[in-house]
Amino acid sequence: MKNIDKTKPVLVTGATGYVAGWIIKKLMDDGLTVHATVRNPNDEQKLEHLVKMANQSNGGIKFFKADLLNNGSFAEAMQGCELVFHTASPFMTEVKDAQKELIEPAVLGTENVLNAAMQCESVKRVVLTSSCAAIYTDCIDTENATNGEITEENWNTNASLTYQPYSYSKTLAEKKAWEIAASQSKWDLVVINPSMVFGPATNPKTATSESLSLLKQMGDGSFSPGVPNIGVGIIDVRDLATAHINAGFIPSASGRNIISGHNSSFLEAAQILNNEFGKQYKIPKKALPKWLLMLIGPMVNKVITRKFVQNNVNKTWKANNTKSIRELNMQYRPLKETMVDSFESLIANKLIEKGKRK
Ligand code: NAP
After folding, report:
1. pTM of the full predicted structure?
2. d(Cα 341, Cα 343) in Å, to the nearest integer?
């Protein structure tokens, strides 16, 4: 049970990220001072939204330079912080060298941040942004789980360096975090396991997250022939920020926590967008047949292998989110609100155009 003093600064790693943006906003609106680590504090364009949010809030922000691959680089930012939110980790599905681009920053980064926490007098709690990807690899894993749903008890056992390497990076990083946490008793670890994050970004123009690439593709015609009917859990980025903050400040918060508002599918998400925006934007209207994906998937996108199609297409996705409701006081907003707000944000920021491919 850790009580966190809100007058002390709070560290957020990966501050320029899609997920971190809303966490930082909520912290500053609540009057806290955020120590924000970024790889390049001189990149004004990437920090602009955070500076603006700080100016409009009751709190403040201070930027620190830190790289996940650079041992010791988080120490200065952590000084005086009781609470650390470690969100930084690359989220991309298409990579040339999975070891270098995904595994090393995820695992070494977690080691570097947690080793800094071991050496920093003030730290009492670390909240790690892991993922449901550390729980399952393919939809078929959720169908095969007890009662057909994944829980915090499950671990991803099927991802590898060559198959779904992002999921592998999140699994290895979370395991490393639990190993380091168990070796000491100065701070406790609370893990957040979000499903696919959608919702409006605080930084729509500079965000690198795969979530935003997917959202754009839903409206720019990339999927106009149809969307693969793949089950997916969806969480709103604003609800996810609340989950992080509750995980940080509720003294009894503990363990892994699945944060997922809706057991859904890409087809359902597309149908919601279609009902609202389908007349003006090229949103997918139907599901792509599985046989077609088996045939052309590997040629169109190297992630869509036959194994991937077999294990995901026309499969449901189900997770049990009751721990988050019971222990982190989560209330999840309707899926329609998430999808509509996401798309309106893309339109407002001119990131998709009516009826055109981009
Ligand atoms: P994002 O917008 O791409 O944010 C990733 C952040 O990691 C960026 O701030 C990036 O900083 C930082 N980063 C990457 N490599 C780094 C390095 N070598 N050193 C320091 N910082 C580095 O992605 P996101 O969607 O917000 O993801 C944030 C976290 O949520 C990740 O841990 C991700 O695995 C997790 N998550 C995301 C989803 C989702 O659907 N989006 C779902 C589950 C879990 P730069 O600005 O310097 O590049």
Report:
1. 0.97
2. 5
Domain count, the chain: 1
357 pLDDT band, cuts 50/70/90, is very low
Q: Using CA atoms of 107, 3, 323, 140 in order, give the dihedral in degrees to the nearest 10.
A: 0
Our mutation pick for probing the ligand 1 site, out of 12, 13, 18, counting the most ligand atoms within 8 A of Cβ, is: 18
Residue 35, domain member (yes or no): yes
266-282 per-position pLDDT tens digit? 999 999 999 999 999 98
Centre a 10 Å sphere on the Cβ of residue 310 and count the other Cβ atoms it contains.
Answer: 15
Mind listing the pLDDT tens digit for each residue in 278-296? 999 989 999 998 998 888 8
Is residue 280 domain-resident? no
At 260, is the secondary structure helix, strand, or coil?
Answer: coil
The CATH number of whichever domain residue 42 belongs to comes to 3.40.50.720
CA of 221 to the centre of ligand 1 (A): 26
* Domain, as residue range, for 44: 10-195+235-260+318-332
Testing ligand 1's pocket by substitution, the residue of 38, 93, 99, 208 carrying the most ligand atoms inside 8 A of its CB is 208
Does any domain span residue 345? no
Give the Cα-Cα-Cα angle 162, 168, 171 (nearest 5 degrees).
Answer: 165
